[in-house]
Amino acid sequence: MKMTERDDVELDTLLSGMKPPEPSSDLVSRVLADAYEMQPAPKAAIVQPRANSWQSFLGVFGGWSGLGGLAFAASVGFVVGLSPPDVLTTPLEVVLGPDLTETYEGTSDSFGFGWAFEEG
Fold it and tell me: Do 114 and 107 meet the contact criterion of CB atoms below 8 Å apart?
């Protein structure tokens, strides 16, 4: 059944004269007594010891295992950056073109990108 605007107005006028029933004071007192009975007793606050700065630093990275993984990934990235494997030159030639990869391959192996030879 679809409600029309006329039905809506009639319903509003019908409900406007009604007031919600007030609960008796006996009911309210019984409900409050049951509520106070069900509440847990207050407990003493548990004080957590403050972590020092080293523990906070480790917590950011997920502890020793996270920091170890980060150190390993950084060292592998550094080594691969210094002397990239031959497998990476083919995808670079596809993306950058063979002329640009030759300039990258011609840099010194000991200094990775040849930054030591720049003036400035």
Answer: yes
pTM over 0.70: no
* Region for 28 from its dihedrals, namely left if φ exceeds 0, alpha if ψ lies in -120 to 50, beta otherwise: alpha
pLDDT in tens, 21-48: 889 999 999 999 999 999 988 888 888 7
Amino acid making up residue 116: A
Residue with tokens 């407990």: 43
Residues 68-71: contacts with CB under 8 Å, at least 24 apart: none
**Domain ranges within the chain, ordered by starting residue:** 56-117
Tokens of 35: 């509520």
Amino acid identity, position 33: A
